[in-house]
Amino acid sequence: MPVRTVAIMSPGDMGHAVGRALGSNGLEVITCLAGRSEHTRTLAGRGGFRDLPSLEAMVSEADLVLSILPPAAAPGIAREVAAAMASAGKAPPYADCNAVSPDTTRKIGEEIARARADFIDGGIIGPPPRPDASTRFYVSGPRADLMSALEGSGIEVRPLGEEIGRASGMKMCYAALTKGTSALQTAVLVAAESLGLSKEIHAEFLSSQAPAYRQMQARAPRLPLVAGRWIGEMEEIAATFEAAGVTGKFHQGAAAIYTLLAGAPFASENRDTMDAGRTLEESVRVYASLLPGK
User: Of 91, 89, 109, 113, which is closest to residue 100 (Cα–Cα)?
Assistant: First the structure.
């Protein structure tokens, strides 16, 4: 059956942009906003989503369901959607596109299989789709071919075979570097601030590590906005590494840094309300003030 209607749980920063891109491709995009925040509703409006009153109504109309959520929420939403499928008597294919470990992905797939729905393992890499930047959907599983319907308008679909766990493993390895690096960079700056060496380390980085320092200037002040979501992602990466026989301690440490940043007073900001003028130095002083004993 061709994919014409795609349900997305949920229209957050990534999900609403994916929905907008799919709408540009001629697909109808739906969701269920029951119990969701006003900010999520605003993003759904920007993405052109059609809101349905219940998950049962949503799965009844969907040809494909995409789960795009903070990783900690992924298993619970899968259970809710599976229950809605059983209640509605309609079980469209379900793609988990969240930053979770291969083991977590397989458990979610078992939940979806109990609803007699096809399961697709997905991993999203890159910024939200926009005209000047593409988003890659790595996909795996016996029915991963269904995801080809997403191609276009800033979305590339890259198949990785029929094995569940390959796409999620790809996402874990990629985010281990990108988000793990941001955590390490921030940890270094916070340690220097705590040691009274901020002025000196900033000057040295600007002199000898200019590309990395520019990256810190761009990213570190924004990290509290996403830190709460990234804690669970670092924990999933740590579990992935341990299952692969590699130490998970790097990313357990990264989870601790994001836990610290989630306590910053501006962590409640979003992309619309954040202070774009907040500097790296100002941000690091706040982060250091949150250290135990400070």
Answer: 109
List the one residue out of 137, 146, 158 whose CA is nearest residue 119. Answer: 146
* Sheet with strand 119-125: strands edge to edge: 50-51, 28-31, 5-9, 64-67, 94-96, 119-125, 135-140, 155-159
pLDDT of residue 153: 79
**Cα–Cα distance between 99 and 251 in angstroms, integer?**
14
Rounded to the nearest angstrom, the gap between the alpha carbon of residue 108 and the centroid of all alpha carbons in its chain is 16
Q: How many CA atoms within 13 Å lie on the side-chain side of 120? A: 26
Nearest residue to 26 (alpha-carbon basis) of 136, 127, 151: 151
Phi (first) and psi of residue 67, to 5 degrees:
-100, 115
Structure tokens at 136: 């890659």
121, 164 in Cβ contact below 8 A? Answer: yes
Question: What are 290's strand-pairing partners?
Answer: none
Decide if 29 contacts 2 (C-beta within 8 A).
no
Q: CB burial class (10 A; 0-12, 13-18, 19+) of residue 195? A: exposed
Q: What are phi and psi of 73, to 5 degrees?
A: -90, -10
Q: Is the peptide bond before 10 cis (omega within 30 degrees of 0)?
A: yes
Percentage of the chain beyond pLDDT 90 is 90
- The predicted model scores a pTM of 0.94
What the block records as the tokens of 156 is 């590339």
DSSP 50-104: EE-SSHHHHHHH-SEEEE---GGGHHHHHHHHHHHHHHHT----EEE-SS--HHH
Residues 56-68, mean pLDDT to the nearest whole number: 98
DSSP code at position 49: P
Residue 238: name the closest of 87, 104, 144 by CA.
104
